[in-house]
Amino acid sequence: MYIADLHIHSRFSRATSKDGDLPHLDWWARRKGIGLVGTGDFTHPAWRAELREQLVPAGEGVYTLREDLRLPDSAPGEAPRFVITGEISCIYKRHGKTRKVHNLILLPSLEAAEELSARLEAIGNIHSDGRPILGLDSRDLLELTLETCPEAEFIPAHIWTPHFALFGAFSGFDTMEECFGDLTSHIHAVETGLSSDPPMNWRVSALDGLTLVSHSDAHSPSKLGREADLIDTGLTYPELVHAIRTGEGFQGTVEFFPEEGKYYLDGHRNCGVCLTPAETAALGGICPVCGKKLTIGVEHRVEALADRPAGFRPETAKPFESLAPLPEVIAASTGASAAGKATQALYEQLLRKLGPEFSILREVPVEDIARAAGPCVAEGIRRLRAGQVERRPGFDGEYGVISLLTPGEIARFSGQLSLFGLDLPAGKPRPRRELKKSAPAPEAAPAAFQPEGLNPRQMEAAASMAPVTVVTAGPGTGKTKTLVARIAWLVEEQGVRPGEITAVTFTNQAAAEMRSRLEQRLGGKRAVAPMTIGTFHAICLKLLGDVHVISPGEALTAAEQVLREAGKKGGGKALLQAVSRVKNGTTLEDAGLDGDLFEAYQARLNALGALDFDDLLTEGLKKDVTGLRRFRHLLVDEFQDLNDVQYQLVHSWSRNGDLFVIGDPDQSIYGFRGADARCFQRLQEESIDVKEIRLTENYRSAPAVLETALAVIAHNPGGERVLIPRRSAGPAVRLAEAADGFSEAVFIAKEIGRMTGGVDMLEAQALDHERPVRAFSDIAVLCRTHRQLELVEKCLRHDDIPCLVSGREDFWDEPAVRGTMAFFRSLLAPSDSAALETALRLVWDCPADLIQKARDLWEKAAEPDIPTLREAVRDHGILESWLDRAEEWLPRVQAEKPWKLVEQWEAQYGTSPALENLRNTAVFHENFGSLWNALVLGQEADLQRASGKRWASGAVRLMTFHGAKGLEFPAVFLAGLSAGALPLESPGRPADAEEERRLFFVGLTRAREELILTTAPAPSPFLRELPETVVRETTGRQRAAEQLRLF
Q: What value, to the nearest 5°, has the Cα angle with vertex 907 and ends 901 and 908?
């Protein structure tokens, strides 16, 4: 039999000892007598690197420390084995409540840890803390873990801890099924935690089929073994997991006395109030000293969920032993301090004479202990084994204390009174007052979908019989709801066939949401499948059929070549932007583009046999859609954002059917792309029998948010705007002026920490429980530009707050990324000459004549014949090098997952931040084709980072005002509201104040409940337009040293 402690932390976790390395863990495990130790923190890349370097295999799925790294020990025990483990903190929203759950994961190998870490890294920050904080639902983390590694074991950690646990009083669930849903059967064990023992857990019948495991959660090697498992199997990973899953070979646990745990009873540590559950109930859960909510302890929570009386023992219950660390036992037996020199000296003496700590506590005869340490310690250990322990319970983060001998008894034993074997009466147990339970109302799960009622104007719009219906809908007035209702009315009331309906959205995400709502409304996927729902580009691609669409990276290569051949200065990206504006309706003169360059770029595309992204619209406009049934009923969302080409497409597609458009001129923010807010007026002027409807009831934002937004937009032309709030009042809008940009970012990070109730146990204890706790996914930080978000991101990551920057795609334009992607693409699609050319130029700096030779050879081969090709490129060094790499990488590209390909590429040829971003994007694509299609179709950056199963990180969202269009959040920060940034001023391009004000209006109306504006000195002139009801405050300058620590 061996002792296992599977939940520990390395020095890479917060609030841990600097000795948390493998040599010290090995040294302390030998001193303790622990046979199997979890590595902890497998997600941290620096710790994984140490594990790879310092551990050697010692059986299937277990490792041991390299012999040359072991620390000296005068009484060494047997070298322990290590198994790969880690803890992940999940903070997310479920059933309208913020959940905070810690989960322990066991893995069969370092390779499995690498793969799972790569997938987690694409979701959140795993670099700053060995126990990463992710905004990922525990159920989805379980699914991701098992999909990545079916042999993994997933164990909810310290399940009763108030702030961060499955059954935690503040942010947990009442049942296992609530947390893990359809995957509950994959949970085989739960970790009971320091503040509960098996008898407490036996009272909850739902835990009967699970193995109750116990571990130390040690943040220092010296704390190993505070709790542990007793296992009688071979020392391999498969046998360990089999014991946990079935109970076969699992002999029980070594337990902390639960009263010693720091969350055993209820109370307030700062007020000195410690209460039993019954006493807390009598006080209504309110502290009698400060009047705030009490911290509910583990005993109270167990009592609330228990369906059995105290003392009940299931037939299948495993045995357990209640022990305490040997230094604490020595201190409790001698009256000394556990950390004092005398105690430590005696502890070392016992280890030298009697062996490892667990042997001393559990097995060594009392007489032998007396000879080695004296009668007091011997009697203390005898009482410990017999359970004759006085306990002062812990509460609200303060550890409890055990007592074995009174001062008088210590004096008598020190006088050599022979009392061995004399059973002293145990202290009288504290009378137990049962907590009276009321039958709690079960937490409401999301109800099955019911069609929401429409207000009169929404109903009028949905049921309009006019050939052209124009709906002006301000923010939060139910645009998507009205569109869905319109489609449902067409199908259900008018008998329209689904295949005769086309709905145009501006993003793939909006299209997916509309399709999902319609499936719920109309009865499933089959009812909606015939409809055409998508962006202008996606619909045009469907119309055009089998065409080759060039990737952005390939287009950039083509643009750069055009500039080189023309002898023109400037960057390819600027040329592409100008070309795009022309293709979307801007004149060459207004775009500042030389006509010859435009023609040369188009000629280059023709030579490649390809279209670029904008060509999808211009070529789609040429298609004759007469007679196509799909356009008999055309609906267009966000109509105010149409440019001229898109407007012409709408005109063409609606020629033989009815047209329904919806949008808001005050949210027209894409003038730089050719959008014109006057498209509503243009449509009315060009159409006959137009019905106009205005939606004015706002269901999104609190009254204070709407008042602020309307005060700002009133400064634009267009008359009085009306938005009637239908949401209840929330907190006042705040404007915080910081001393500088750094202070502004720190302020935002600290505010988010307070909103979310702290991100670790220490912070959670420090905050009161009066204000509602938000999930990370409830919060967004919006700025005018991506550059402004960088400092905010650094401050959030410094505070271990998970965040995700949406819309950042600049890394795709880096030559290293473009070259790598193009090379992989050319291997899988030899006919894609643009990919081959991009790869040869960017990876090998190949001259044009050799590129043409390679193209001629490569395109002819449906399946590359390497020996024949090698003969053809003989004596052409660059092409020989290219072919060598193609031969090496072709089997990998066909077999490996994309993230693995990128990782191997980095290992062989060097990495960069851009390639790291590529890897973190690739990790959720099952094959290269999926990754390539995501790039070419131009999905939003947040979707490109999502998995095939759409695991969504619950992180704080960081995005630009433009990127936030169409989204909403309970709490929103608008940051960087400074002169020069809003309105945005750039050389040679005067700011359009009206459009910039509309952009500010969009940002303001993303907030549902709470809106905080921040600025540094020289505030934006738009802030002068805020109403007097906005609460103004200042935040101070941070010390320079704090800035240095941050970076």
A: 90
